[in-house]
Amino acid sequence: MMQKLYKLIIFIIVLAFSVSSYAQLRIEIRQGLEAPLRIAMPIFYGDLAINQMLKEVIESDLENSGRFQSILDSQMISRPTLPEDVNINDWRLIDSDYLLIGQTEVDSANNLRIAFQLFDVLRGEQIIGFRLATTIEEVRLSAHRIADLIYEDLLGVQGVFSTKIAYISEDIIDEVTHYQIVIADVDGTDPFVVIDSTEPLMSPAWSPDGRKIAYVSFENNQSEIIIQDVSTGFREQVSSREGINGAPSFSPDGSRLALTLSGLDGNFGGAHPPGPREISDWRHAHKVGTTGRVLPVYPRCRQSATVVL
To answer: Which CATH number goes with the domain that contains 66?
Structure first.
């Protein structure tokens, strides 16, 4: 009896160990948590107000990407402004991955020159060195461009901090609802109104060169597709068919416009110029602009393989 009980105990222990071992083999790590890159940016040498804005915008851009973490000024052991002043060990001690330093100079004509250098702390060497010529009116834009350069160099992906966004804003003025298409920097600063209407506006889409916006307007008590020049304000009506006129989207070269139009067969169509036509195979259309699409500072477009309705 005792021998049977002993064998039973041994069997249970072996079974438990086997189940435990099998369970461990079933554990799968599908995704790791990537820590943000730690970057230190002492304030640049030169005009304090300009350099403070540069620091705030660059740090904000990089942090908002989710890929960077700024090191606080209170954690910094030293604050170099020139490459020869950099002691790499000061930044290794506070676990900084990268160090950004720079210098600014303003002349009597308010022209601004910015020089900056980026150091890889682990390798102990400078990896970026640039000079920008701009004006004091474009300090924010210059900061966005510096953030773009850093982002692309370190991550291999083109930054979008110097681009713009378009969005729909709704406001009540004198008890009347106003709808506006607003353009702003990608971080929401420097907004300006492209069009103001008491009727709904929808679906702003950028042309690839960033000079025009197509959108849906209900200003004539029905949906219409409008193309508007951003700089001049000139407006052109593209489609005003009965039913749905929606979801405008420029072709990659900006010469044509895809639209969503209602019809007997619920067609998806569009070509501009010369006028709307049906696209029988949607796989050959390309979605270029969407609500909130960024406005390139220089001509470019991003092309996908499908149209999303």
So the answer is: 3.40.50.10070
Report the C-alpha gap between 259 and 238 in whole angstroms: 10
Domain with residue 224: its CATH number is: 2.120.10.30
Angle, CA of 157, 160 and 165, to the nearest 5°: 150
Domain of residue 78: give its range: 37-155
- Tell me how far apart the alpha carbons of residues 244 and 254 are, in angstroms, rounded to a whole number: 23
CB-based contact 259:239 (threshold 8 Å): yes
User: Whole-angstrom Cα distance, residue 160 to residue 151?
Assistant: 9
Angle between the 48-64 and 139-155 helix axes, to the nearest 10 degrees? Answer: 40
- Region of 203 on the Ramachandran plot (φ > 0 left; ψ -120 to 50 alpha; else beta): left
* Average pLDDT of the residues in 258-287: 50
Exposed, middle or buried by CB within 10 Å (0-12, 13-18, 19+), for 194? middle
- Hunting for tokens 């951003």 — which residue is that? 230
Token output for 9:
């105990």
Q: Which helix (H) or strand (E) holds 106?
A: strand 98-106
pLDDT in tens, 10-59: 555 444 444 444 334 344 445 444 789 999 999 999 999 999 999 999 99
Whether residue 105 is found in the same domain as residue 227: no
Token pair recorded at residue 98: 């990268």
